Structures are given as structure tokens and as C-alpha cells.
């Protein structure tokens, strides 16, 4: 049931650390899980041509992005023996040092949880139509491109 | 025929809008629409722009009345 239901991935603004703590707490009743793997994407204060990034303003083709997130979930559940998986991504402005992506995979054993988590992160970066405007301290901006 | 065109990221910035309804001749392909809009809005580095027709990343299709065509700059999630 956990894997079939399309879930809301986008959250407005930064992902609060409390959300991560609560997600861990919510899994304490699921005692068939032996390992969680967590990836947290944090906004880096890149320096480009002498200017420092102060925030990223995320936007997305939301309808398509939600569908792609769902397809990635389906593929991950087919590929890995995971118990559950949760993804959250920010929209709007996220300041440097704050969290913009939270991927949480759980499995009976560590290897699968870690591999699945990595799979989610790589697929999200490559295939989800999300766009990032890097805002500098002087309020100019440039558009981010994933490497 | 009419198609809905959506712009995102730096393309929305260049176009000065996020969406418009365009009248195109029937038989227009997604690639033809892309070329036309690239010229109109002077979109830089058009090879990096992907088109999604009704949310499918396929540039080779012929467009139909009511289609939604999205102009997607490079992805930057995560």
C-alpha cells in the first residue's frame, strides 16, 4: 500500500530538521526494518565570479514532476527490496545551509537501503523537471544546472 | 489549431511569461514549434532545452489541437 499511493513530494521553502526527526520517529513501530538510509541536499554558498550564492529559488513543472517522482518510486520498489521510501523536495526560496532535498529509504538490511537511496537521488537529479535560480548576495541571479 | 505553451526557469524569464495559448498551423511538429520560439525569444543554447508534449519528453511528435507543450531548461533538482 505504501508504494502505490502517489505522495506529495513538494514542500514550500526549506525542509525543517524537525521533519527529518519526525520521519525517523514514525518508523520506530515498523520493526521489520533494520536499516534506514537518508540523503539530505543542502544549499551550498558557491562563489561564482567573486559573488556568493545566498539562496536557491526552486520552481518546477509540478504536474509532470509529481508524475516523474511517482515513476521513480515505482521503479525503485521494483528494483530494490525496500520497506518504504519517502521523498521531499523544496519549492520557492531555500537559503544557504538549509535543506532542499530529503530522501529516506528503509529496508531489512543496510546495503539495499543505501543503494536505493542513491538511486532515488541520481534519478531525481537527472529526470525531474525542477529548476533552480541561484540568488547572489547582491540580489543578482543565475540559473543552476545539475552536473 | 491552438496549443498551450508553458515556459520554465530561464526560458520563462526570457519570454516574460510562464504560459501562452498559440495558434499554429495543423501538422506543426514539436521541433518546428521549438525552433520558432527559440528565435522569437532568443533562447540561448537551444540544444539544452527539452520539450515535453503532454508531459512526455518526445520532440519528434506532430502536435494536436489542445496539446500542452512545455519548454524545459536544464534540470537542477536536489
Structure description:
- With 147 residues, chain A is of the alpha+beta class.
- Chain A has a domain at 10-40 and 62-130: Aldehyde Oxidoreductase, domain 3.
- In chain A, 31% of the residues lie in helices and 38% in strands.
- Chain A has helices at residues 17-26, 62-79, 110-127; strands at 10-12, 35-42, 47-48, 51-60, 82-95, 99-107, 130-136, 141-143.
- In chain A, strands 1, 2, 3, 4, 5, 6, 7 and 8 form an 8-stranded mixed beta sheet that branches.
- In chain A, strand 3 and strand 4 form a beta hairpin.
- In chain A, helix 2 packs antiparallel against helix 3.
- The longest helix of chain A is centred in the middle third of the chain and has 18 residues, at 62-79.
- The N and C termini of chain A lie far apart (35 Å).
- The relative contact order of chain A is 0.26.
- The mean pLDDT of chain A is 95.
- Chain B has a 4-stranded mixed beta sheet.
- In chain B, 24% of the residues lie in helices and 26% in strands.
- With 78 residues, chain B is an alpha+beta fold.
- Chain B has one domain (2-72): Beta-grasp domain (Ubiquitin-like (UB roll)), CATH 3.10.20.
- Chain B is built from 2 helices and 4 strands; from the N terminus they run E-H-E-H-E-E.
- Chain B has helices spanning 9-15, 30-41, and strands at residues 2-7, 19-23, 50-53, 68-72.
Give the structure's gist in a few sentences.
Chain A has 147 residues and is of the alpha+beta class.
Secondary structure layout plus pairing:
The complex is a heterodimer of chains A (147) and B (78).
Chain A: E1 10-12, H1 17-26, E2 35-42, E3 47-48, E4 51-60, H2 62-79, E5 82-95, E6 99-107, H3 110-127, E7 130-136, E8 141-143
Parallel strand pairs in A: 1-5
Antiparallel strand pairs in A: 2-6, 3-4, 4-5, 4-7, 5-6, 7-8
Helix pairs in contact in A: 2-3
Chain B: E1 2-7, H1 9-15, E2 19-23, H2 30-41, E3 50-53, E4 68-72
Parallel strand pairs in B: 1-4
Antiparallel strand pairs in B: 1-2, 3-4
InterPro entries (chain B): Beta-grasp_dom_sf, MOCS2A, Mopterin_synth/thiamin_S_b, ThiS/MoaD-like
Family (chain B): Belongs to the MoaD family.
Keywords (chain B): Nucleotide-binding
Amino acid at each position: 500500500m505504501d508504494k502505490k499511493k502517489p505522495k506529495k513530494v513538494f514542500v514550500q521553502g526549506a525542509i525543517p530538521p524537525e521533519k527529518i526527526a519526525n520521519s525517523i520517529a514514525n518508523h520506530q513501530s515498523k520493526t521489520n526494518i533494520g536499516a534506514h538510509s537518508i540523503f539530505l541536499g543542502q544549499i551550498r554558498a558557491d562563489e561564482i565570479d567573486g559573488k556568493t550564492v545566498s539562496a536557491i529559488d526552486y520552481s518546477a513543472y509540478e504536474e509532470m514532476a509529481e508524475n516523474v517522482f511517482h515513476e521513480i518510486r515505482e521503479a525503485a520498489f521494483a528494483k530494490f527490496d525496500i520497506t518504504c521510501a519517502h521523498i521531499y523536495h523544496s519549492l520557492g526560496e531555500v537559503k544557504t545551509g538549509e535543506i532542499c532535498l530529503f530522501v529516506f529509504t528503509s529496508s531489512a538490511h543496510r546495503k539495499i537501503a543505501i543503494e536505493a537511496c542513491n538511486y532515488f537521488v541520481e534519478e531525481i537529479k537527472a529526470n525531474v523537471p525542477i529548476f533552480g535560480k541561484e540568488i547572489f548576495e547582491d540580489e543578482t541571479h543565475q540559473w543552476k544546472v545539475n552536473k | 489549431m491552438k496549443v498551450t505553451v508553458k515556459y520554465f526557469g530561464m526560458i520563462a524569464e526570457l519570454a516574460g511569461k510562464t504560459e501562452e495559448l498559440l495558434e499554429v498551423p495543423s501538422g506543426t511538429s514539436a521541433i518546428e514549434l521549438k525552433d520558432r520560439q527559440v528565435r522569437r525569444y532568443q533562447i540561448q543554447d537551444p540544444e539544452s532545452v527539452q520539450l515535453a508534449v503532454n508531459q512526455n519528453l518526445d520532440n519528434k511528435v506532430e502536435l494536436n489541437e489542445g496539446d500542452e507543450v512545455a519548454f524545459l531548461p536544464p534540470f537542477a533538482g536536489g
